[in-house]
Amino acid sequence: MVDSGKIEKLENLGKLIRYFILASTTEAGSGHPTSSLSATDLMTGLLFGGIFRFDVENTGHPNNDRLIFSKGHASPLLYALWAAAGKLTEKELLTLRKFGSPLEGHPTIAFSYVEASTGSLGQGLSIGLGMALNAKYLDKLPYRTYVLLGDSEMSEGSQWEAIQIAAYYKLDNLVGILDVNRLGQRGETMYGHDLNKYERRISSFGWETILIDGHSFPEILNAFEKALFVCGKPVMVIAKTLKGKGGSFLEDRDSWHGKALKKEELTIVLKELGTVDTSIRGEISKLEDKRPEERISQKMKGISYQADKPVATRRAYGNALVRIYPQFPNMVVLDAEVSNSTCAEIFKEAYPEQFFEMYIAEQNMVGTALGLSRRGKIPFVSTFAAFLTRAFDQIRMSQYSNPNIKFVGSHAGVSVGEDGPSQMGLEDIAMFRTVLNSVVLYPSDAVSTERLVEEAAQYHGIVYIRTTRKDTPILYREDEEFVIGGSKVLRKSIKDIITIIAAGVTLHEALAAYDELKNERISIRVIDLYSLKPIDQATLYKAASETRAIITVEDHFAEGGIGEAVKSALAGVAIPVHSLAVRKMPKSGKPAELLDYEEISKDAIVRKVKEII
Q: What are the catalytic residues?
């Protein structure tokens, strides 16, 4: 039996939180009050009903329970909750959506009580999954992760990717809270208020499901209490709610999505709410002061390759992960069921407890990596470069959460060969170059790959490393250093007429072209542009001042690739830049045939040099 005094206090807090939601959105003149009002009782019961455990003075405590608003447009509710907890003043609440305020239109980490920036629907459950994986398998802490979900976003495939993986890993510390308020942006959702349809689908994936009235505090508290004792599987609380709950002309009414009340409308709703005690504050339960076992960094081993034996950069990537892990013990590796091709399986065999198989579900894999990153881990995320494109929304959203994620795309370019265009990453460089503060690296041999994986692990932020399927010759000594933002001039003389800039497979084609042209007494410079972002502008400027033209060569579409990166870096410099790139429709064939067909091979480089001179 739930204590009546406790219920009364929660009802009063719920009324206060509704007041905060309505006042702040009306002051802002925009926002999503009705979407916030539907989940108010659910969140009030969670935070202030004795279930949620959190040190309000230390948001970074490793054993804090985690709350993620996947339904990010309900941010007015999130802010109102923390105001009711005494961590925001009403004056601060009224800065909602104003320039410079941490209370943005959708949750961002500018507000210290936000776990990860959300708002693009269908992503919060994956982020929560990453945090729950961290608690159960890595930090081994008892904290729980709660994710508020909207019924509209349950149409997103990424939700079901997360649902099945959470069940696979038996994440009984993950609780989804599905706010079934029936109405989406333009009308009724797919299943309306039919909770049984959600229950059948979610339970079939192996989740414990609890159906409740989302406006009944006794049912809400009983559901969260029950979730604490479920073992071996995640829990989904499926709650029937009313959008706009608390205002008679708002409740369960269409056409109110994303609309703030006018001041006269606010006055009407506040009268219906009745007396609001603005002095009361809710208390959040104290947590156990538990912390993860400290991971001690140890010195990594050196690199060892036979100079005369070609090695694929994808294999060097797997080798590098194993080699550097002792120095970076917070590393985790995620792969989308292609670890035997990306060579992440080398790490899996050495450190299985630090490896998570994410199966062919790239969107969820990226969201999970963000959740792990937000809990202090360094995720390396690998799959075919082509398949990362389907997760670009998750990748671009992660940039707003101060992430520390390393993406690795293998099997890039037409040099993949016979598998054909569906397997050829030809857009990946462009995609990752657009991400704010990202680093884009493209090694050409095993040594440079190993060094750049080290650099990626040391760099805090998003790093993309492009690896190659085919074996390539060793170009560098084992003690060669590589830095982010650098390049290597591999061939140079005072007689150089033209500079060739390449990376990856095409760098080897450029070196072969150099040898052929040298025999014809034509001198060219060859630069390994292994860091595409940031780019080595100084070396490019020097080449532009000392040679007559520049030719870029890349196994990537022309748009957004090496050529455009170089042209951008040399904007304002009076030198012609010629771009050899993939410009024809790719097809199956031998790698050498395809490099010739796309005119990015040794022969194509030689022809272009002769054409220019």
A: 362
